[in-house]
Amino acid sequence: MILHDSVFILEFLLTRYSKIRGKKTGDPLIDEPGLKVTIVSDLMLLENQLPYFILHNLFHPIFPRLVQNRTFRESYQNMTFRESIIKNFGYRHKIGDDSKFRHFTDLARCVRVGSLQSPDQRKYKKFEHVFNADKLHSGGVKFEAFKDDFSLDVRFENGCLKMPRLVIYDSSETILRNIMALEQCHYPYTAHVSSYVDFLDYLIDTDKDVDLLVEKGIIKNAIGQPSSVAEMVNKLGSGTTHCGSYYYDIAVKVNAHYSNPLTRSLAFLKRVYFGNMWIGTATVAATLLLLMTLVQAVSSVYQLVQDKNPLDKS
Q: Does the CA dihedral 228-105-124-166 come out positive or negative?
């Protein structure tokens, strides 16, 4: 059975990027693009995993000869078996050459965890709460996205929460759930993907939070209604346990910034009086008019005082 599954995986990997794409062959693996998406999702399921070392030992020695076939040569020229797997899952240039993974689900985790900065130097503690995105934004926290679809790196600098773009497809829930299940079993003290989902869950409570994060480029919604995204994120962490979070320091800083009365007051003034260009223009014009009126009033009072002072007249 293991050999049968291994051969199927190899056939799928070879045909997915072969030159015979676009031609009817009678092979559903090649002729039906929708089936390929389904197979990739199934290969990510934790219960479907084959140890990578089995695949490697079976096919790494013969892979260079297999790809000499002109059908596969263009897609896999000068690639190792490991590199072909990484390419097939869309992770090329996203994982280091020295990174080791146990199977495909672990590969998906390694790609994401590899983006973190100095994970060994972080404080791993549980945090009780982070305010949702809409409330944080109203309280003066800015949001900024950087384009790295597989990154987990979150930063908070100068009042700005910087997060990687998260593209949410129909298959995203399946992939994240299986990575989180893997972490619960094998990485309980470094469950960084679970910690990221937990942090995101705090940020997203309602459709308004999703709309804000979409507007800021932090989420790309490819599944439809904002409510679908909110529901997916809120359910992902159900039943999981955490020994500590990689994002503890970030959560503390974000909450402290939001709780600062001065920051919230400035944010309120900016939102009310400079919410858009027209309101801002009207505010500036009204302020200038008020200043001019005040200057005129002071000038009139000063002139009146001068006129009534007999010493000045003499």
A: negative
